[in-house]
Amino acid sequence: MHTPVEYLGLMALGLGAGVFGTLIGAGGGFVLMPLLIMLYPNDSAATLTAISLAVVFFNALSGSEAYALARRIDYRSALLFSAATLPGAVLGALNTQAVPRQTFDFVFGGAVLALAVFLAFRKAGPNSPNSPDGRPPAGGVTRCLTDAHGQTFTYTFNPALGVGLSLVVGYVSSFLGIGGGIIHVPLLVYLLHFPVHVATATSHLILAFMAFTGTLTHVLSGSFATGAHRTAALAIGVVAGAQIGARLSERVGGMAIVRLLAVGLAVLGVRIVLLALGWWN
Question: Distance between CA 222 and CA 224 in Å, rounded?
Fold first, then answer.
């Protein structure tokens, strides 16, 4: 039996996850999952990932609306990469049901800790992977985007590489229940050379499509049956938090966002690995 106090706590948790997740373009799932693991140790990995993905969807939907007003979303890339994530999102959601809880926790913690280390030691690169003579690489396309404040972003990337990466992100993120932004944003920035603010905004729209697909798969498979009320409480918080996070992103520098992303990942990874090993109860 869930109490009113518990639901209020979940709303507050959702608010915090929405603010931080939207600020870094991650959707809040990486904040929610370790806390859900700690708060509900008797629930299956499938149930917790179903709750997290559903909340990520509401967060991403709210954040996308705010980023759309800021005109920082690369819509063509978002739609292309979203289509690539959908098959992986379905497969990842189905595979979660077959994995024991302790194994899931260990894989989850190790994956995000590795990404934190990558971000901590990776220096910022150029916004576009142009060759030394100034021409774009083979197969590359160039985008030019001007946001609501008049700031112009010009960048070049390989869409085929983006599609391949998105397929993998769709699977991994749906399997882990983190939505994917915390993986997709670094890939957009460091491998596809998106400007950080465009990457966080575009990632949010991709998240909305991907999280909805993963959530629907969980609903159809029955793993969402016991999580609807908790999801609703968390969703109320993240919808409000996403609006705050999107507006804060306009005042925070790109490298500061990446550093926040690395710190969040490191704390999360260590916490979950220790939990999986039985060293943190």
Answer: 6
Nearest alpha-carbon partner for 261 in 14, 24, 16, 22: 24
Cα 253 to Cα 255: distance, rounded to the nearest angstrom: 6
pTM for this one? 0.72
Element (H, E) at 152: strand 152-157
Q: What sign results for the dihedral spanned by CA atoms 181, 119, 106, 166?
A: positive
**Contacts for 165 with CB less than 8 Å, ≥ 6 apart:** 184, 187, 191, 192
Nearest 5°: CA angle at 147, between 193 and 83?
55
**Residue from 24, 35, 30 nearest 203 by CA:** 24
**pLDDT, tens digit, 9 for 90 and up, residues 99-143:** 777 787 787 778 778 877 876 776 554 444 433 344 555 567 899
